[in-house]
Specification:
Blueprint: H1 2-6, E1 12-19, H2 21-27, E2 30-32, H3 38-49, E3 59-63, H4 67-77, H5 83-92, E4 97-101, H6 104-107, E5 110-118
Parallel strand pairs: 2-3
Antiparallel strand pairs: 1-5, 3-4
């Protein structure tokens, strides 16, 4: 949606893929964060810092740190919230899951299914 807004277009393309998680788990380093906890918070904070993007995982699954979540994480990073307070706040946020493919090898476990176009070009 953001791309279509930047391009001043109502046209959006949704791509569908199938992901073979079980095969990926057998051959790759896969990390699954089931919920926001201290380990997840430490991982997100480290990635946001830009200090170490080499975490050793091919695929990372778990909660999305969207704008609402980032506001809470910023309070933690600046020392306003403790780890415990941050996790309590995150548990009341509506959090969605995501899958991040960090290596080219991880993309081999995706199979393209189809795409759909929605909306139309502005003329």
């Amino acid at each position: 949606m953001r791309v279509s807004e930047r391009r001043n277009s109502n046209r959006q393309i949704i791509s569908y893929y199938e992901f073979d998680l079980e095969s990926a788990k057998k051959k790759l380093q896969v990390k699954n964060f089931s919920f926001p906890d201290q380990e997840w918070l430490d991982f997100v904070t480290l990635c946001r810092s830009g200090k170490n993007s080499e975490h050793g995982y091919d695929i990372v699954m778990g909660p999305v740190a969207n704008d609402n979540v980032y506001a809470t994480i910023q309070l933690y990073e600046t020392g306003i919230l403790s780890v415990e307070e941050t996790i309590i706040r995150l548990k009341v946020e509506k959090i969605y899951d995501q899958i991040l493919f960090h290596t080219n090898e991880s993309l081999n476990f995706l199979s393209y299914i189809k795409h759909e176009e929605q909306g139309e070009e502005n003329g």
